[in-house]
Structure formats: C-alpha cells, structure tokens
Amino acid sequence: MIGRVVSTKMQKTVTVLIERVAKHPLYQKTFIQSKRYLVDDPVGVKMGDVVEIVKVKPISKNKHWRIVKVVGKNLEEITESALKAAAEKIIAEAMPEGKTEESSVISHQTEEETNKRQEKLKERKEKSES
After folding, report:
1. 27, 38, 53, 72: most buried, per Cβ within 10 A?
2. Based on the domain organization, do 47 and 20 belong to the same domain?
3. Domain that holds residue 14
4. What does the pLDDT average to over 60-89?
5. Same domain, 62 and 24
6. Prediction pTM value
7. CA 119/CA 26 separation, integer angstroms
8. 82 lies in a domain?
9. pLDDT for the residue numbered 39
C-alpha cells in the first residue's frame, strides 16, 4: 500500500495515512475513506513523505507494517517552493529595475539624514564640554 506519513513523534515508528476512494452501494456517490497505520521505520522518513508499506509479522501490539521504500518527498514543501519561485518572478516583472533605484535613493536620503543627526550630536557634545 502507498500512503503519506502524518506523524513521526515515536522512535522507529511512524503513522501512515492511507486514503482510498469508495462508492456508496445504493446512492453511487464517491467518497474518500482513510485509515491510519502504525508502521516500523527503519529508513528514517520525514513528515509528509509518500511511502510504500508492506504487511509483516507483528512487531508490537499495534505495529504490523514496515516501510519498503520512499516513493516521494514532502509534496507540501515542493509546491510551496514552486509557488515562492513563481511569486518572485511575478514581482520582478511587476516592479521594473527603475523602481529599485528609487528605493536606493530613499535609502541614501536616510543615510544622509543619519549623518546630519550624528554631526549635530557631536556639535552638542562639544558645546556642552566647553
């Protein structure tokens, strides 16, 4: 069976969620059924990984499954990184380089203002000392 790792809180054990599509016998409506299995983890998988599990002899009271291989990595992280890349591209297109120069001018103005403030503070210190 193939499922997604939903919990890795235990040592050498993970919780795998298996989902399947079922059809109601009378009303013919399709719906998703899911079940969680405690699975032995010799590989060391992470949350969100898609894994293939196989039935083995009982390892403990509730653990009768073992991970055979990791089919795919965390899909949420992959889609999130793809969305970030797409957003950065759109922002770069919407804000041309000319606007970044304006922002650098603003930052120069703030630097000049800070320099002026520091000079005024030095003058005040000199006056108070004399």
Report:
1. 53
2. yes
3. 2-77
4. 83
5. yes
6. 0.56
7. 85
8. no
9. 95
